[in-house]
Structure formats: structure tokens, C-alpha cells
């Protein structure tokens, strides 16, 4: 696995993070890992609620971010769009695309509408999340058996996020 991430401005105040990786599993298995509550809880978030297009779900990520989201599109097994609000109150969209590459599957995740000043924080976070997905698939189980909550991130996720953060930090102009 080689997770790659890019950051870009969308306008003067908001931006997007795009991460992707290729996983050693078929598209149906990866779709389940990205859309079913039991599988999501193995690597990224506790999710509950109305799991259909137009439905609202409650999420608590391994990063400790917690909130509501609305499912805007769900085209199994290749495309998912979820809308929520950033900590700053701006609407964000998380969009995922899955494509088959031989006997493997590529996952591309893009989160749009993030405050520009926070892109680096989210870039490191999304890379850690996709690495956790790979770890969970390899284990066929939870990447964070120690758990997490809305007040405490998963310890291994937080360690990896801390390691990755310098690579995503903004570079000061000379």
C-alpha cells in the first residue's frame, strides 16, 4: 500500500483533500468496508442512523470528530457521497470512488469544503485513515481494538497522525 494525498484550494477560503490507495481485495469487499457500520467501526468510525440516500447518520471518527452527516449518493459498489459540517460550521462533502484494478481495488476519497488553514490537519488524518483501512483488511478485523470516543482519539491513529503531520504542514513563504 502506498497512500497518496493531495491538497488544493477550491476558492479563497476553502479547499479539498484527496487521498487514494489500492487494496488487495475485490470491489465488493472494499465497498462493504466503506459502507457497513460493522466494517466502518473496524477502521474509521462508529456510524448509526438512517443508512440510505437522504438519510442522516451519527458518526464518531477514530480522530474523535463526532457529528451528523447526510447520505447524498450511494451507487454500490462504486460511488458514495456524504455531506456534513466542519468544526467551523461549513458544509463539507466526502466523496468516495471505488474502481477495480485486476484483482485489487482502488479507493479515492475526496473531502471538499474544508477551511484552507486546516487542510494540512485533514491531509495527515485522511492518510492515517486509509492506512488503517489497509491494516483492517489485512487483519480481517479492527485496526483499533483499544477503541476511541468523541473525547479520545484511537491511540494508534493519533500516533500515526502526529508522525504524518509535519509532511502536510504548510511551508512558509521566504
Q: How do you describe this structure in short?
A:
This protein has 174 residues and is of the alpha+beta class. It is 28% helix and 39% strand.
Helix count, per DSSP? 4
Any idea how many domains? 1
> What does the largest sheet look like?
8 strands, antiparallel
What spatial form do the alpha-carbon principal axes imply? globular
- CATH superfamily membership, which one? START domain
Helix and strand pattern: EEHHEEEEEEHH
Q: What does this protein structure show overall?
A:
- This protein is α+β, with helices and mostly antiparallel strands and 174 residues long.
- It has a single domain (4-168), classed as START domain (Alpha-D-Glucose-1,6-Bisphosphate, Chain A, domain 4), CATH 3.30.530.20.
- 28% of the residues lie in helices and 39% in strands.
- The protein is built from four helices and eight strands, in the order ββααββββββαα.
- The protein has helices at residues 27-35, 37-40, 119-139, 155-168, and strands at residues 4-9, 14-23, 45-49, 56-61, 66-75, 79-85, 91-101, 104-115.
- It has an eight-stranded antiparallel β-sheet with strand order 1-2-8-7-6-5-4-3.
- It is globular and about 40 Å long.
- The N and C termini lie far apart (35 Å).
- The model has no long low-confidence stretch (mean pLDDT 94).
Amino acid at each position: 500500500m502506498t497512500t497518496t494525498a493531495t491538497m488544493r484550494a477550491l476558492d479563497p477560503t476553502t479547499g479539498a483533500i484527496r487521498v487514494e490507495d489500492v487494496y488487495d481485495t475485490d470491489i465488493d469487499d472494499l465497498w462493504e468496508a466503506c459502507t457497513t457500520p460493522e466494517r466502518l467501526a473496524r477502521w474509521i468510525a462508529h456510524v448509526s442512523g438512517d443508512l440510505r440516500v437522504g438519510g442522516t447518520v451519527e458518526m464518531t471518527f477514530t480522530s474523535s470528530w463526532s457529528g451528523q452527516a447526510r447520505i447524498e449518493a450511494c451507487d454500490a459498489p462504486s460511488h458514495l457521497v456524504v455531506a456534513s459540517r466542519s468544526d467551523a460550521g461549513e458544509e463539507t462533502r466526502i466523496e468516495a470512488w471505488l474502481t477495480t484494478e485486476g484483482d485489487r481495488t482502488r479507493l479515492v476519497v475526496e473531502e471538499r469544503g474544508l477551511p484552507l488553514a486546516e487542510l494540512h490537519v485533514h491531509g495527515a488524518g485522511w492518510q492515517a485513515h486509509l492506512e488503517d483501512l489497509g491494516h483492517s483488511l489485512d487483519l480481517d478485523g479492527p485496526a483499533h481494538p483499544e477503541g476511541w470516543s468523541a473525547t479520545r482519539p484511537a491511540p494508534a491513529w493519533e500516533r500515526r497522525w502526529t508522525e504524518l503531520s509535519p509532511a502536510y504542514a504548510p511551508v512558509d513563504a521566504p
